[in-house]
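Field log, afternoon session.

UNIT: design team B
ACTIVITY: writing a sequence onto a fixed backbone
BACKBONE:
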């Protein structure tokens, strides 16, 4: 006789940039085991695969997970984890005023959100009635470009080229082009125009939280910035 099915609660959240509504559940022991095995491997690629597998298992996001930007993947994963292991995490923070004293801080994970820079835009005006619309890098693209020890200007160009979504001029919309064509197009930009491309990446939305800490030895109050998914694994 088969054992009864356990009831798992279901929740809903709205992704911060796309506005997409997502149904999700806490991860279960089988998924938690997958995550711990990936963490023990200390291989970033295995961590990425584990996170993506857990999101596929625990949400109604299935086929198009590879199209989600990094920060929305981090956002939904953090929500899944909060419901699974507790909505308050404990962190051991090193006080920045002496870089030595550590303090324990409790942080409700529901308070953590994606922060959008007020100067951020994904539409770049290149002048002469030409505009370039950027798309956000997926988790795979982001990891591929950031796993290198010393990424160079060529890596930056490849990342930027992969994120060109559309190019507009006064008469036409260009949305079907090769990677080489995108790279050649970027190579024709002047320094000021390319700085706008760099600004897109510098100001890209991030999972971020400012944490107030006080050094018990010195009494100095500081702000520690937690940024990116790994920072919130207390």
């Amino acid at each position: 006789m088969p054992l009864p099915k356990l009831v798992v609660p279901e929740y809903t959240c709205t992704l911060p940039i796309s506005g997409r509504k997502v149904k999700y559940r806490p991860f279960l022991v089988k998924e938690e085991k997958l995550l711990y095995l990936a963490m023990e491997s200390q291989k970033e690629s295995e961590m990425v695969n584990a996170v993506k597998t857990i999101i596929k298992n625990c949400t109604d996001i299935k086929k198009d997970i590879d199209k989600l930007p990094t920060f929305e993947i981090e956002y939904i994963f953090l929500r899944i984890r909060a419901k699974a292991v507790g909505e308050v995490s404990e962190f051991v923070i090193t006080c920045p005023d002496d870089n030595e004293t550590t303090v324990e801080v409790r942080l409700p994970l529901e308070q953590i959100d994606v922060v959008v820079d007020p100067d951020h835009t994904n539409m770049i005006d290149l002048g002469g009635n030409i505009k370039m619309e950027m798309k956000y890098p997926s988790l795979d693209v982001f990891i591929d470009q950031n796993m290198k020890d010393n990424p160079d200007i060529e890596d930056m160009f490849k990342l930027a080229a992969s994120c060109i979504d559309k190019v507009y001029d006064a008469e036409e919309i260009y949305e079907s082009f090769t990677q080489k064509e995108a790279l050649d197009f970027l190579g024709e930009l002047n320094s000021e125009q390319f700085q706008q491309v760099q600004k897109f990446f510098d100001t890209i939305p991030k999972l971020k939280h400012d944490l107030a800490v006080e050094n018990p030895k010195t009494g100095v109050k500081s702000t520690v910035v937690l940024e990116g998914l790994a920072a919130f694994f207390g």
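LOG NOTE: The helical segments are 29-41, 44-58, 70-85, 139-146, 153-162, 179-187, 191-202.
NEXT ACTIVITY: expression trials, pending approval
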